[in-house]
């Protein structure tokens, strides 16, 4: 396994200025004072056996994201089940049913409860098992661990311990938090990708201590020992304080030596590290929260309905017990057949209060059918089937990755239809981490004819919208321009050129040496040289293709080098002091190898927002080449360097509107004396020891980065995932708000905001930032006051805005957010954010993502959805009401913590607008119907008991009661919950405003719930009293016999079965053969059961023996009563829906009618008009951009017409015209 260090590689630390090169401990830096609380961890390097006993026994490297384990499953899951009001009631009822007071057989209460709870627990177990299997895969990964005598062997991650020496190879994840000891580069440098931690795709440079550089191969660890004393486990990703005791010396450690779990080694063959934190002590796991148990808002409200029914149950039970006590005291002595001379304790007229109290228990059990015990299990079954449809939806299947949508929990299906705010990660969620060089501006000329994705999609959308507004033919100039953009895109799509990763540029003027014939060829030459020289990348030759690929710190830098290569300037070699470029300076294709000596490199930081390199060419000339944010470059231009400032600024604005990321390029030629003097100061600043070193370096850098000459600008496209802009636009039309929470820098986040149309030209940006502070109490207080002042002013600005079309975007960074999330300021911040059309939070940590999500969830009281793809998104995914994970290429942490997983962001549109809308309406209607049918059924028991002197007698056979919820009415309600569609999926996508029905909770508000409960009370009254009125005072059969209790009970039960099934048929909008079979089959099943049960011997069937064939079927009054009661029961609901559809139709009613009469085919203009109405007024997305463009065009046209009118009037009044 041993491999020697790569000596041929350069010492990378000599290239970097700010990020890497710092004075080592050998040069006099003091160790950190490690003492006091929070700094108690001691790690013995290469001695893991020392950590097997307390107090040095730390947590293992095993990680778990499950909710339960073998010990906690039953107590925790049973608590969850009986936390539900209905289940708890039936648990008490099942216990009471064991005693003689129960009016039913005990198994009729116990069996349904065991079935319901058992099924729910089984579902929880299966869902948690899937999480467990994901954990098993992660914990079973293997890494090379030092065993003994310089030998490294593969070991599972979960068996790695604190103190182990680990060898990690290129493109592998770090199994724990490691202290970097050495790397394959001789100066201990390595590249790390932290996208799973902070969302950034650019590589971070880590460096080891110089004292451990000699540990350069496997054998060197044979006798290695050392001690690390450091901070305790904490969630801070960007800090680390500790000391390394090695060879009788103490060396300070900082974050640049720490390799965090779930980050990945890039561009470095291998590194060695010692394990410091393992498992749940690692920083990434410290940033995650325990997997919560989530419940939907409908389920929470359902508990309140259960409480209402419990109150109703207790009320009528008290009435029943009071009535029983009254009857016992005053009427019992007159009922000779009850033997009042030998009274039983429960019917003794002497103690009616005791009789009433005991009867209360009987009444509570008797009327228990008001509480639907099968409701929860029916909902569980329905939700599992709904989740199956989500999993099997081919429209959410990604053919490239072979990944389909997956509902990891079915508890939150209906919550998908009530989302108000989406909180999204950026990198890997909205974007696909690929930069393409698309356009550039050189010497005031814009190059690049290919349209960006945003331009092409916006042009198509605008053409469609103008067509819908009937404005295509009247204003030909603007559509023609858009048509050209679309044509360009189509040409690009049909181009035979083989696509090159990172290079989407198309313009013959610069390709194949044609730039030599351009007017400003010298400036173009300088532009290409800046691209090829100003970077920190390392070239790698692909032997198969013969082309170079580049290992760069950021995708932008790699795309610049790819572009330079395609333009004929191929960077192919880097040494310790030089870069080498093959330059093609003639149309013939011949190249010249040129060497540029790198004298200094001032690398990019988020504060500097620029990067510069000082080089000496082969002629001895010294140049400073600089690239950076346009605002930074422009303020450093010389007076004679602004020649191209005007056109370049115009092009940058155009590129920004097209959603492209831009940088300005400039240069400056230096005199030898000037450079020598500056370099002496610069070297002195580099070797300075102290806290002011960085500040001193920046001042020295500013001295040379001035008097620049502008060459041009670049525009790269951060490739969005397929369909992201269209998805965001549709979600905006559905009335959803979108917040972007990213670890990227502010400029990147803003550019992506433009790409996604979260930002647009004309939108007023509110940037809340904080100046750097040292963290003192006084300074911290001043910073908070400054932030609060910014927020207050912004709130006032938003409130005072009178333009109804004005849109605001809030942009805030992580440092400012730290203060804004304090308890005394967070609600002011939230109030401002809610008033803004879009919110972008950048440079945020995983913990801050979770805190922002919690603030939105608790502060607004509305449903939140968080979506991300990396480990840095786990906190917000778990904190949100709904967590959605993207099945990306970088790990499965987000998916493992999520409630739903999809392959790409664009599938969120269908998940919410289609499945969310359907699931919400299905569950809402299903629950309302459940309460309706149980109230209609349960109250008839109360009426009969009151009719019979509160005797506690049930009018129905025990088997009727058992079958009512479990068999005879369960299948139709499941059909409603699984197959109901008010409109098709295509209509849901065409009319996104339908989603507002769930967001506004139109189908599960108290008005509708009480309406259904009132309908149940009405139905119960009709069923009981109409049956009694028809049957009680007249002969039941032709021979003159009257009906007994079983005949009355069976007739009433038949009416109930008919009434509730006809009611659910009227409720449904969408029918297939399945619904017909289940609804009418349930009615048929009742008659079949009654016939077969009646055929059984009297010892089994009792009073039901042949009741259908001999008693009910021959009696016409039975059939008349069934028909009369059924019609009377459903008549009010039928009248209600008829009135509503005619006078106050809902959106889906209108669409259903248009589709039924095929008006969408016969009158396309009507259909188009209705579609345009079905959009929520939004200020983000393509629709908002199109509307703003149309308003702009109309304003220009009106202004032009006004000017023409004024000109015409002046001409009319002029002397010449007179």
UniProtKB/TrEMBL annotation:
What would be one Gene Ontology cellular-component term for the protein? Answer: plasma membrane
What species does this protein belong to?
A: Microthlaspi erraticum
What biological-process terms (Gene Ontology) are attached?
Answer: phospholipid translocation
The region called Disordered is annotated at 471-493, 1196-1218
| Ranges annotated as biased composition (Polar residues) | 1200-1218
Q: Which parts pass through the membrane?
A: 85-101, 107-126, 304-326, 353-377, 930-947, 959-979, 1009-1032, 1047-1066, 1078-1096, 1116-1135
One GO MF term: ATP binding
Question: What Pfam families does the record point to?
Answer: Cation_ATPase, PhoLip_ATPase_C, PhoLip_ATPase_N
Cite the entry's keywords alphabetically: ATP-binding, Isopeptide bond, Magnesium, Membrane, Metal-binding, Nucleotide-binding, Translocase, Transmembrane, Transmembrane helix, Ubl conjugation
Record-listed E.C. numbers: 7.6.2.1
Q: Which residues form the P-type ATPase N-terminal domain?
A: 43-110
* Ranges of residues in domain P-type ATPase C-terminal: 895-1145
* InterPro entries attached to this UniProt entry: ATPase_P-typ_cyto_dom_N (IPR023299), ATPase_P-typ_P_site (IPR018303), ATPase_P-typ_TM_dom_sf (IPR023298), ATPase_P-typ_transduc_dom_A_sf (IPR008250), HAD-like_sf (IPR036412), HAD_sf (IPR023214), P-type_ATPase_IV (IPR006539), P-type_ATPase_N (IPR032631)
**So which domain of life are we looking at?**
Eukaryota
Q: Does the keyword Cytoplasm apply?
A: no
User: Principal localization?
Assistant: membrane
The keyword Zinc-finger appears for this protein: no
What residues bind ATP, as annotated?
Answer: 425-427, 557, 604, 627, 661, 742-744, 843, 849, 872-873
Active-site residues, record numbering mapped to chain = 425
Q: Which SUPFAM superfamilies match?
A: Calcium ATPase, transduction domain A (SSF81653), Calcium ATPase, transmembrane domain M (SSF81665), HAD-like (SSF56784), Metal cation-transporting ATPase, ATP-binding domain N (SSF81660)
The protein here is known as: Phospholipid-transporting ATPase
